[in-house]
Amino acid sequence: MSAARITAGHEDWQPPGGEQQWSDSFYFGGGDGRRLAFYARIGRRPNEDVTEGALGVWLPGQGFLLSFTRTPPGPAIAAGPLSFRCMLPLVLWELGFDGAGRLFERAEHVATDRHAHREVRVTAHLRFTSWGDPLSFESGLAAGVATDHYEQPGSVAGTLEVDGRRHPLAGRGMRDHSWGVRDWQGVPYWRWFGMVADPDNFIVLNNVGLRGGGETAGGFMMRAGDVAPIRACETESELDPELGAQRSFTARATDALGRETMLSGRALEVAPLRQRRDGRLTHVNEALTEYEWEGRRGTGISEYLQQREEPLAGKPASGLVEGAASS
Fold first, then answer.
1. Residue 29 near residue 54, CB atoms below 8 Å
2. Residue ranges per domain, the chain?
3. Which residue in 114, 165, 166, 171 is a FRET match for 35, CA 20 to 30 A apart?
4. Contact 194/204 with Cβ under 8 angstroms?
5. What is the pLDDT of residues 23-73, one digit of tens each?
């Protein structure tokens, strides 16, 4: 989809295709650029009669909050306690949450110590305001995950209250809307990175493994007010030997204008999330990440997806949490 074809009509659920795994997904992610970060996703599978809602929040000094809900589809962009409302198409959205979540001491405990959490009360009221027109996202995922996809950077402001503790947020982030066949197990792997500095400077990169071998690259870069899609990206990663999750990485990329750049990151806390289908297990590792890009530093989220035939050593598959953030 070209950016010129994105209209107000795309800011709602789209007419579904006939495939069983056809899906429609809205995603928001952001933070204060320091230690507070969140992702929120609502995805509908109309041909399977389900809508999923996921919220993950890294809370400074309090822990990692996780909520995942499945409900029947409805007209609103909502799933259980999580809701998104479009106030002005392509410009302004409101995000709300009113319900319960699981609070872990650290994000890694989602997989390594899944019983070590408390059920807590959570409320959230956030507003996302875009910085400009939506950007068509070329990701290399057309064969398996969402053929239509656009993204927008912007500012995020509001409050989150978890277990009686209030966390004000005035920061920045990214939203997207994607729809089409979504086969989590159809992609060998992907690596997703994003750093949003200001309206004139932001970057999104990914590497996607191909079924026949090799990989492709996608994303876009805004530098000094000029934006262009990414044409090439190579990533070097250090992985945690137990979780298989990212510890650190360096991504070197070139965009369609021939501009070269390097984005590096270090995972501070990783939430090891899982998707299951028909006996297949997909690891989706969401990390609070300290980024460095062209002299700028700040935190954001990185995501590593990989396929696994077996669960973590010593951990039964039934004990792993489902509910990935990925758009």
1. no
2. 21-310
3. 114
4. yes
5. 999 999 999 999 999 999 999 999 999 999 999 999 999 999 999 999 999
